[in-house]
Amino acid sequence: MNKVILIGRLARDPELRTTGSGISVTRFTVAVNRPFNSQNGGQNQADFIGCIAWRRQAENIAKYCTKGSQVAVEGRIQTGSFDGQDGQKHYTTDIIADNVTFLGSRSDSNNQSGYSQSYSQPMPSYDEQEPLPSTDVTEDPFKDFGDEVALSDDDLPF
Question: What pLDDT, in 10s, does the model give residues 85-96?
Fold first, then answer.
C-alpha cells in the first residue's frame, strides 16, 4: 500500500502551472516537524517534502494557500528520474496529493483557536444540537448472534 498523510506548513508560495493540454498542476513544499530530537539541543527539526497537486485542487491550493499556510496532505509517494543539464542522472521523490485540507494560515498561529475568522462557522449551541441516543452498556451487544462458537488452535490462521 502506498499511502502518505502529512500535516505541516507551506515552506514557500505554491507554483501553479498549466500543461500543454491545459491541465493545472501546482508544486508546493510542506515543512513537517520531526519528533523531538535531544541531539539538537531540544530544537524542532523539519523535513521539507515536495508535493504535486493536479486540476481543480491545484488551482485551489494556488489561490488560497501561501507560505506558512497549514495543510493536511493525503496522497502517495512517486519516484522518478531525469537527466540534468550537467549530464548527471537526478532522482526525485514527490508526494502526489489526492486530497489537501486547508487547516489555517500562518497568521492563525497567533489566534488561540487556530482558525481564521474567514473560515470559521458558528457552532450550534448545546440546546440546538440533536440529542444523542442513549446506550445501555449493561445489555449484551452480541445476544442476537446465537450460540457460542467453539474454536480450536487448528482453526486459527496464525
Answer: 999 999 999 999
CA 59 from centre of chain? 18
55 backbone φψ class: left, alpha, beta (φ>0; ψ -120 to 50):
left
Provide the residue count of the chain.
158
pTM of the predicted protein model:
0.63
Q: Which amino acid is at 151?
A: L
4-128: which CATH architecture?
A: Beta Barrel (2.40)
> How far apart, in whole angstroms, are the C-alpha atoms of residue 132 and residue 22?
49
Instruction: Quote the CA–CA distance of 136 and 130 in Å, as a whole number.
Output: 19
Q: Which three cell numbers stand for residue 26?
A: 501546482
Contact 95, 4 (CB under 8 A): yes
Calpha distance 114→109 (Å, rounded): 6
